[in-house]
Specification:
6-stranded mixed β-sheet; 17 strands; 467 residues; 20% strand
């Protein structure tokens, strides 16, 4: 193995350690156990558990179900029924064999690589609502929520079609809106989000196990908050977000504008009695939301792996988006360049989530925010006076869910060899950047990272190793 390939494997090993710490099945098993007929979930004890009703949606939810099912199966008295909406990952995972009398449906609600709502996902959400409505008072209802849950729990309100909602979501994403802004709109255009699933529940107790793909762990944003009863949908905020990207109301479907206008009028202090509004938001069950893991969990595990390799580590997990990927790459230079001047092996680890504002479709290539970030950082390094003087390095940026934008790649890496090819040629890199065509750039250099489904989703993880 050459020194460069050894450094690349070391970088990838550190990244994988960050992923392993937040795998859906492992992290559920770490937080749950039985104490007699009581199910212990973190700091909460649920006593006299005889029947568990499970629902869920997200990229990591299938793995979370595997971990939960293994725990529940340890108590032979426990009966289980449930329904989860997940991506179609049958190529990667086989269904776990659980007791034959369990009535459980794994509903593969969208194809891999297309994180958008589908008719199948909407039908599955309807089944989840029906199941929750039919739950018994003494049941323990457990939700399995992870990133990607918003697209897997579509249930548009009357007057809004699934296609209307899909067109609006695509517009929000292409305009560079943050996940908070996108989900603020989604929450208003759904009967399942903004606490909708909690309100549908007839049982007396519900606990939602959450793997956070949101940097500040805000419950209203993770999967658009299907069990968040503390933050009702805000139609004024949704209107404000859409007005910024469609000020003349020519792109967003008319049905969306009409529905939001109606909701704004209904929520006016003069339009509804406060007591009636509180009654509408009430839930019949006690709801607990438990965050099992997040981006910081992944960063800490990756950092520990790097220290075990004898590297000096600097790490950070951001609590909000770092902004445009290109601007973030530029801002990293004063922080990263000093690491090249120090002796010994260095490792810089960062967790977060940038965004990319796409050019017009006819000029647009394909890629994702991680590939775009790596390409922009390569451009910044190539503009240095003497880039060839930098010590050997590998920089890897990838999505923890194994998907980066509308591609099958998780991300990409750059290294000293690639930098040598483009030293003092930033204009060539700029052309790729302007087209947002990072996928094809890295494809031609064989520097794309393909992981398949990782069984988790906690934003992005970047690793820089210097020897």
């Amino acid at each position: 193995m050459t020194p460069s390939s050894q450094l690349r494997e070391q970088t990838l090993s550190i990244w994988r350690a960050g992923i392993a710490a937040v795998r859906g099945d492992e992290i559920v098993r770490r937080h749950l156990h039985w104490d007699g007929d009581s199910l212990i979930i973190g700091e909460h004890a649920f006593r006299n558990v005889e029947q568990v009703v499970v629902f869920g949606a997200g990229k990591a939810t299938m793995a979370m179900w595997r971990g939960l099912g293994q725990v529940l199966a340890q108590n032979p008295k426990c009966r289980v029924r449930g329904w989860i909406n997940v991506p179609d990952l049958k190529e990667s995972w086989s269904d776990e064999k659980f007791p034959m009398d369990w009535n459980f449906v794994v509903h593969r609600a969208r194809p891999v690589g297309s994180n958008e709502p589908t008719v199948q996902a909407m039908e599955g959400t309807e089944r989840i609502v029906e199941m929750l409505q039919s739950s018994n008072h003494n049941d323990l209802v457990i939700g399995l929520i992870s990133g990607g849950g918003s697209a897997l729990l579509p249930l548009p309100p009357e007057g809004v079609t699934l296609d209307d909602k899909l067109r609006t979501t695509r517009l929000l994403a292409a305009s560079g809106c943050t996940i908070h802004e996108i989900n603020a709109v989604r929450r208003c255009l759904s009967r399942s989000k903004a606490g909708g699933l909690a309100r549908a529940c007839s049982a007396s107790r519900m606990v939602s196990l959450i793997l956070s793909d949101v940097l500040d762990d805000s419950l209203e944003t993770i999967a658009s908050g299907p069990t968040d009863v503390e933050h009702p949908a805000n139609p004024d905020l949704a209107w404000s977000v859409l007005s910024r990207i469609d000020p003349h109301r020519r792109i967003v479907p008319k049905s969306i504008w009409n529905y939001l206008a109606q909701k704004i009028q209904e929520s006016s202090p003069n339009a509804i009695d406060p007591l009636d509004q509180r009654t509408h938001l009430q839930v019949s069950c006690s709801v607990k939301n438990v965050i099992l893991g997040n981006n910081r969990t992944s960063v800490m595990a990756a950092s520990q792996a790097a220290r075990t390799m004898g590297m000096e580590v600097r790490s950070e997990s951001h609590s909000e988006s770092e902004g445009e990927a290109e601007a973030y790459a530029r801002s990293l230079m004063p922080q990263l360049l000093p690491l090249f001047l120090l002796h010994g092996s260095k490792c810089w680890i960062s967790g977060g989530e940038t965004y990319v504002t796409l050019p017009f479709e006819e000029k647009r290539g394909i890629g994702g925010r991680n590939m775009h970030l790596a390409l922009c950082l390569l451009k910044e390094l190539a503009t240095l006076d003497q880039p060839q003087m930098l010590r050997p390095f590998v920089f890897l940026s990838a999505g923890t869910d194994g998907e980066d934008g509308p591609t099958s790649a998780a991300g990409a890496w750059i290294d000293s060899e690639l930098l040598a090819m483009y030293s003092h040629q930033p204009n060539e890199l700029i052309r790729w950047i302007e087209r947002c065509d990072s996928y094809h750039f890295f494809e031609q250099h064989d520097r794309l990272l393909f992981t398949g489904a990782t069984q988790t989703n906690v934003c992005d993880l970047r690793v820089l190793c210097i020897h």
